[in-house]
Amino acid sequence: MAYYWFKAFHLIGVVVWFAGLFYLVRLFVYHAEASQEPEPAQTILKKQYELMEKRLYRIITTPGMLVTVAMAIGLLTTEPEVLKSSWLHFKLAFVAVLLAYHHYCGRIMKKLAAGECQWSGQQFRALNEAPTILLVAIVLLAVFKNNLPTDITAWVIFGLIISMAVTIQLYAKKRKRDKEKLLAATQGKDEEIAGQLPV
What we know:
single chain, mainly alpha, 2 domains
């Protein structure tokens, strides 16, 4: 019975942890892009994002991580023989990378708050895809265990990385086009208004 309790709360922890990581880096995107806003909007937005990031990291993301790790340890105590399995070693390696990513996000959060982070919104969008790749690898290992078809898995992850990179680039081009259209429309209106003014 303990196994099922540990497993249930392990899964709950994973969902909370990943939700926090995905949203945290999305906030970094908005925080970085707030630098392009005029004052006082820039200062107001940065303060708001800083507050949201701290609360998300401390109240949701980190507790989700702690529950995930604690329940995983609980699961291992109910099935210690699984520690000899090679699939678990790979899974734990990916989890270690995810833990490093989690703490790296904490460092970025502090740098953003201090105004010392020079990352662009697009760079943060790319960073935001890292947990997706880790999630796919971890879930596939947990489901397939030693029967994971590594050749197909490698192609799936490679395809995922390529599609993410293409999507980020296409989105960046769309944003650039939209800004150019908005700028052209604004300039056109300014010229129209100037033409209507009495000389």
